[in-house]
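We modelled the chain as a single entity of 129 amino acids. Its sequence is:
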Amino acid sequence: MTFTSIVLEINLITTINVLILLYILRYYYKYFTRKSRIPSPFPLPIIGNLHQIGLNPAQYAKDNHKKYGDMFEVWVGSKRTVILCHPSLLDQVYVTNSQTKFFPRGAVNHVKLNGLHHGNELEKLLCNQ
């Protein structure tokens, strides 16, 4: 090996280490500055909470329900997933509203498919009868 090849290897290793460090810093910056923080177990970069979930996700959900309450979040890789454990929370998620802490949703308009009515038009038909 020559001196230049050793220097190139050291530069490559240093560059990879710096990139990994930057990814970890970005991951935790996004984690600590996220909107609508919900209680959750602390995730690791790249794998999130997968190391904690293991082979029994149902037991993991039950344990976190006891610890964090009816709503908690789990990180699968770098994706955030909110777990809801009470039916009343589902109503809040699916309400048509753009001013919500959940993702914005619009109203479902009338859709007629194979003679079936869906959405707001169905509600009008049922209320008029």
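As a brief sanity check on the tokenised model: The longest strand covers residues 71-76. The beta strands are 71-76, 79-84, 111-113, 116-118.
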